[in-house]
UniProtKB/TrEMBL annotation:
Keywords: Actin-binding, Repeat. It holds the Pfam family CH. It comes from Goodea atripinnis. This is Spectrin beta chain, non-erythrocytic 1. Residues 83-187 form the Calponin-homology (CH) domain. It comes from the Eukaryota. Coiled coil: none annotated. The keyword Repeat applies.
Length: 200
């Protein structure tokens, strides 16, 4: 995440801003009122290291060890966050698929052929989508996912930088993003339909 932030700035500008430790400390102290939480220290160290690396500066061995530890911790936190999102989204998908006696076990694997994705959208929208293409070859999976994505586009759901191949390939980040987009679009409608079915 911080890599993209560092990449948005000119390396010379970053180097100038973070080359003096007094300037850095004063800047951060002013902004955060001398709060030195571990998250803030972590981000400060990452920014310094990224600024040095983007300008081609070598880190001394102690800085390199610290940087590697921070990178490892950052990756661990990202993995933990992704695991929580995957588990939460899987439960959400299953809570809706259970109405048509379906279930997924692995969010990334079970949506790849597009069949469960089509079923989920039918349950959430109350509409019939085109029948899934039969077959297990990649081309069939791409067609099915494309049908689901096309339906979302017709519903004016914005799918930026996402294609059927991303879901078929099991891209974790984009699969999570797709489910999150579906939740945002259909959750109020799904809750309304569920309330109506309970009244009847």
């Amino acid at each position: 995440m911080m890599t993209t932030v560092a990449a948005e700035y000119d390396p010379m500008e970053l180097h100038g801003q973070y080359s003096s430790s007094d300037t850095v400390n004063n800047r951060w102290d002013d902004e955060w009122d001398n709060e030195n939480s571990s998250a803030r220290l972590f981000e400060r160290s990452r920014i310094k290291a990224l600024a040095g690396r983007s300008h081609g500066m070598e880190l001394d061995p102690a800085q390199q060890v610290s940087y590697n530890l921070l990178e490892g911790r950052f990756k661990q936190l990202q993995d933990e966050r992704e695991a929580v999102q995957k588990k939460t989204f899987t439960k959400w998908v299953n809570s809706h698929l259970s109405r048509v006696s379906c279930r997924i076990t692995d969010l990334y694997m079970d949506l790849r052929d597009g069949r469960m994705l089509i079923k989920l959208l039918e349950v959430l929208s109350g509409e019939r989508l085109p029948k899934p293409t039969k077959g297990r070859m990649r081309i069939h999976c791409l067609e099915n996912v494309d049908k689901a994505l096309q339906f979302l586009k017709e519903q004016r759901v914005h799918l930026e930088n996402m294609g059927s191949h991303d879901i078929v390939d099991g891209n974790h980040r984009l699969t999570l993003g797709l489910i999150w987009t579906i939740i945002l679009r259909f959750q109020p409608a799904a809750e309304g339909m569920l309330r109506e079915s309970r009244v009847l």
